[in-house]
Amino acid sequence: MDLSSRLLEQFLVVAEERHFGRAAERLSMRQPPLSQAIQRLERRVGVRLFDRGPGGVVLTPAGEAFAADTARLLAAESAALDRARRVGSGLEGDLRLGYVSLLSLRYLPRLLGAAAQELPGLRIRLHQDSSTVVAEMVRAGSLDLGFVRDPSAVPAELVADVFARERVMAALPTGHRLAHAEALDLAELRGEPFVLPTGSALPTLRDQIHRACEAAGFTPAVRASADDLTGLLSYVASGLCVSLLTEALLDLPVPGITYVPLRGAPEHLESTVLAVHHPDPDPAVRRVLDLAIGLYGSG
Predict the structure, then answer these.
(1) Of all residues in the chain, what percent are helix, strand and coil, respectively (each to 5)?
(2) End-to-end Cα, the chain, rounded Å
(3) Among 39, 66, 88, residue at a domain's last position
């Protein structure tokens, strides 16, 4: 005979009530079947668990030990079932989140704080890399969710949800003639020396700068290029170049650089942040994604 949870629960109720009649009433059953169940349990265990008397029952020493172990066993079983349900619903477990470096300033702090409050049993493990690497790690399964900026880096088999949009601003040397303007038309930067990202490093940003400038009626005069964001910032801060960069950099002030809003069509002067994941994501990914969209919107 297997020691079912129901049988062990019946034993514990009898041990607590010390009376078969009261225990049966509490268990919503008749007394004879309960007495028979306890007798079967004693035969299975091989020792008497109760001493019976006219006024009720008392636990034997073996029964006392068995009751303590049974209570722990049932508590562990309940905890295991609850944990499995919580993991299955995305409320507990581990989630591996990849992101590109700049997103750690504007989005991750609030998201991690909200997740700690709303999903306290979920552990989020972070990995920083380029958009291409983050997207590939999600595709390969070594990351569960990725936050990237470059849609061209996302493999076709993944889903890319837009969860935030940012303005693109003019990044000017602080001493530039337009640095103190409240806003400017992009055409005012015609003839200015630009620093652009290389096509291999940040192709989406490079293409966006070219498209925005062409929409404003000119081709950017490229003086320098850089393989990463720090290189772009260095050229602007040196006073040698101007560039177009996302407003998220307002969270990373760099001496020597002033950001000025641009007037113009949003489709040319807007940057998107993408959440990349497999179709039909597991519950933990869905919950964190819903948190991000709730915090930052998508429009």
Answers:
(1) 45, 25, 30
(2) 62
(3) 88
Question: Are 42 and 183 found together in one domain?
Answer: no
Question: Quick one: CA torsion of 58, 64, 66, 70, rounded to 10 degrees?
Answer: 90
Task: Kindly give the residue spans of alpha helices, DSSP state H, lying in the chain.
Answer: 5-17, 20-26, 31-45, 61-88, 103-106, 108-118, 131-140, 203-215, 229-237, 283-296
Considering the domain architecture, whether residues 133 and 84 belong to the same structural domain is answered as no
**CATH number reported for the structural domain that contains residue 48 in this entry:** 1.10.10.10
Residue 83 CA from chain centroid, whole number: 19
Quote the pLDDT of residue 299. Answer: 45
| Token pair for 126 | 């972070």
Do 120 and 23 belong to one domain?
no
Contact 187, 216 (CB under 8 A): yes
Calculate the average pLDDT of the chain: 87
User: 18 Cβ partners below 8 Å, 6+ apart?
Assistant: 56, 57, 58
The token pair that represents 147 in the structure block = 């936050």
Residues above pLDDT 90, as percent of the chain: 40
CATH number for the domain including 172? 3.40.190.290
Query: Which among 69, 88, 107 is the end of a domain?
Result: 88
Mean pLDDT of each 10-residue bin along the chain, 299 residues long: 80 89 89 89 89 87 89 76 59 84 83 91 90 91 90 90 89 96 95 90 84 92 92 96 91 91 79 90 88 77
Judge whether 148 and 166 are in contact, CB under 8 Å.
no
State whether residue 7 is helix, strand or coil.
Answer: helix
Domain count of the chain? Answer: 2
161 and 178 co-located in one domain? yes
| Domain encompassing residue 50 | 5-88
